[in-house]
Amino acid sequence: NMLGKKVPEKGMPLFIGEIMATIMRSVGPKGISFARYSIDYHILRNYLHVLKDWGALRAKQSMPQYSMEIVQKYIQTDKKFAEICERIIDLSPNQ
After folding, report:
1. CA geometry: angle at 49 spanning 32 and 71, to 5°?
2. For the segment 31-75, what is each residue's pLDDT rounded down to a tens digit?
3. What is the pLDDT of residue 45?
4. Which comes out higher in pLDDT, residue 68 or 25?
5. 57-78 burial by CB neighbour count: b if 16+ within 10 A, else e?
6. CB neighbours of 59 closer than 8 A, spacing ≥ 6?
């Protein structure tokens, strides 16, 4: 319930997951691009989790500097990500 919406309890059906995996292997990032994507994805996901559960100040204090640099890059260049961060901060009781 990060943005006021219920999170689905179950994942997607296995056959759809297999189809998506096949598509991602053929059109998704590969090699070093995949590594960068994967690292960024996990850092952003963790930041959103910490932001929601601990608040903005503790998120900044708890995350390593290199992670916060990646987060700041996305906040500055991705309007949608910045909006999500602001909305989480607004909804978080731990500001």
Report:
1. 45
2. 898 889 899 999 999 999 999 999 889 888 999 999 999 999 999
3. 95
4. 68
5. eebeeebeeebbebbeebbeee
6. 47, 50, 51
